[in-house]
Amino acid sequence: MKHGVLQKIPTATLRQQTAVKIRDAILNGALRPGEKLVERELANQLGCSQATVREALIQLETEGFITKTPNSATFVTHFSRAGAMKSFALRRVLEGYAMEEAGRLATPDQIQALERRYLEMVESALRGDQALFVERDRGWHEAIWELSGNEYLIGALRRLILPQLAFSALRFREGHAPDLVADAKSHLPMLEAIKSKDPRLCHKALDDIIVGWESMWLNLGWVNGDAESAGNLPRPGEPAQIV
Q1: Domains in the chain, please, with CATH?
Q2: Rounded to whole angstroms, how far apart are CA atoms 180 and 124?
Q3: What tens digit of pLDDT does each residue of 73-88 get?
């Protein structure tokens, strides 16, 4: 083999690949809400350096998937009852604005693409495929954010809402899933509002569906009290496991 034929993998690529693996582990439930993440343990499991893991965790922190405490300990994001309500309150404002902009700016072709995403989400729900449903639900919302054309808004929504979706995916995996078909079809008023091109209706459609999501989190017992979601956290000192 000639010297220099193969190029070194850029550090940024290694960081991104590591971040993807950890993010997927959170989304598929291998890493659970409130679970402590130890850089050394993750590096050993992923076969990379602690520096790469550290950079990946920084990226995931900006996306809202993990949080750091004042003593620098790192945990998978979890929600208390109070925290969930604060998160949904902010979501009303930010995603409501995204809905307004989507209704104002979306082209006929973009609306058709959004409708296809909606139908695909319903199809995954009818099949009872929870993992695919979560993936398509996430894709649906991200498509709406993209229609706003505002990269700052999109970044803020990713940090705010992706942890909510990740948390939902974990609860699904634990057997606390809602009626997936009803959940999927609850997105239809959002689609119809965007088709109407009326910003007021767009924001109202988002408000109405968030009321339902808040109630679902509470009625299914996903969040309890103002402390951690006890009962689903690992034992002290138990390392994270990426399966």
Answers
A1: 11-76 (1.10.10.10), 81-219 (1.20.120.530)
A2: 9
A3: 899 988 888 989 999 9
